[in-house]
Amino acid sequence: MTEGWRFGPVTEADFEPLLVLRTEVMREHLERVGRYTPERSRQMFRMHFDEPGTRLILLDGVRVGCVGFRRHEHEIRIDSFYLERRLHGSGLGTTILKAMLTEADATGLPVRLEVLTGSKADRLYLRHGFVKLREDDIEGFYERPAAGPSIPALLPRGPGHQFVFYGDACSGVPGALHEGTFAGINAAVRRLAPSPEFILFLGDEIAGYTADADTLRRQWRHWLDHEMAWLDRHTTPMWHTTSNHATYDVMSEQVFREVHAHLPRNGPPGQEGLSYWVRRGDLLLVFVHTLWTGLGGEGHVETEWLRAVLQQHADARHKIVAGHHPVHPVNGFSGPYQRDVGPEHANVFWDVLAENGVLAYLCGHILAFDVQVHRGVLQICTAGAGTAHRMPEGIEYLHAVQAALDDGGLRYQVFDADGQVHEKLSWPLAVPPVEQWRALDEAGIGKDRLAAFRFTGHTAPAPTGAAQTLLAAFEPNVRAPLWIGLSGPSQRLMVILEPEPGRSPHYWLGPPIAADAPFDIQLLVHPGMGPGGLLYRLAADAPWTSLSAASAWGAERLQWPGRWSVGHGQGGSDDRAFRGRDLAISATTFAMSSD
């Protein structure tokens, strides 16, 4: 039925037959909203019929309807889209709409239209990327944002998986602020080519936080049936984590189960449909409930079930765990239970991940993008897929993450509502073996390269609280933009970045280094990882761990110096001098990505 159609020009001879067709298919709906009289119907159709852009719809050469496709300077408007009633449900309307949207995409303009309130056409437009901007008793007003060029998706290098994960829309309320911002991110996700195999949503889909179950259900239904109507969830499955906006008490947990009845019920007792796991070939996805009411609420997570699931699926080549709350603080927004998982759970939780070969823990909650590494396990925080706030403002941005997983590991790209890619990572890193590292002045440290330093020697015999320099940038007449050393009574590894003269420095802290003992410290500087991009390990075969920080930025602001001070600060041999012996430094650089 959808073949053999085309557009044709309208003539005055088409007016009366098309008016009859319009009246037949629209009269019932117009009467429902109190807007039908024969005179008004003729007047309104006459106005649209005479406007440039009216097209005849022909099927096998026979007139079966019409549509208005009006190009203006800043928009395209669609109106007067009528088909003979016998063709409703045939798929022809969808085919014609897709053709018009393809034509509109080539112009780079948004498409706008109105639909009578309560019309079944609402679902058609929502499925094709339109967003309901507002609605009154008569009409709903819809917009499809201008389509940009496709966003090339990262693909597996051989057998693997490619998917999208994002979170924190806090939407579900028609016409509210977050609905529009979330629509922008969804429009960017739809531009991925090819489309993702599956989607993970890391919580806070809806505004929630209501005591009324029916209100909560309405928010979920609006989010699923309107805001996410573009997604064919049979072709592209979507899995969810619980979250503080959506599952904050017993009632909301039950609503979550009802709304997401398709989610597996293989979680621990009492958490069926809240915690669960999914196996896709060699990939295991485990979703944990980080605020179960039966365990204490926000910031609490059950770990024994997680351990058992990971051990049950020890054969899975790739293991990813997803939850809402971070385990390690993000951007300095720290606070057990409310900001991150509570301390009685956090260490055990991470032990389970590290000991069972988990590649990454995906989370949200803090309205930022952040990646850290702890004992070789990534913590990737992605929140702000629609929530129009930032943590902090001015640095973070609306975004989603697309990832590819294969035998070489995980690669991701973080893109905003305009489709611009901000950050990338390939993990694990292909760090050259230490035998290939060179002397500091021969390593070629500079922009657009990852740098790693190796510090060996013997610490001072007596503990001291004074700072001791391992390596510092040498910048005459300004404070050193980079300082690496030991500091405080426990002589913790410390990195200080001071890229903006006259502004407060930011600090990164690592482990304490034992007194009167040999040491072998490797420090990796990854400008593409934000604040988590300063990593250390204390042996060549040890996993990498990010230093702790309260910063929202990292080495991306660092301008590498041309000169170095070794074993003391740039103020001379007495400036925070290293008090041990046999200090030696080597370094290496390598490409940002393994692609």
TrEMBL record:
The keyword Acyltransferase applies. It comes from the Bacteria. PROSITE patterns: GNAT. InterPro entries: Acyl_CoA_acyltransferase (IPR016181), GNAT_dom (IPR000182), Metallo-depent_PP-like (IPR029052). Gene3D superfamilies: 3.40.630.30, 3.60.21.10. Its EC number is 2.3.1.-. Residues 5-148 form the N-acetyltransferase domain. Keywords: Acyltransferase, Transferase. One of its GO terms (molecular function) is acyltransferase activity. It is an enzyme of class 2 (transferase). Pfam families: Acetyltransf_1. This is GNAT family N-acetyltransferase. It comes from Reyranella aquatilis.
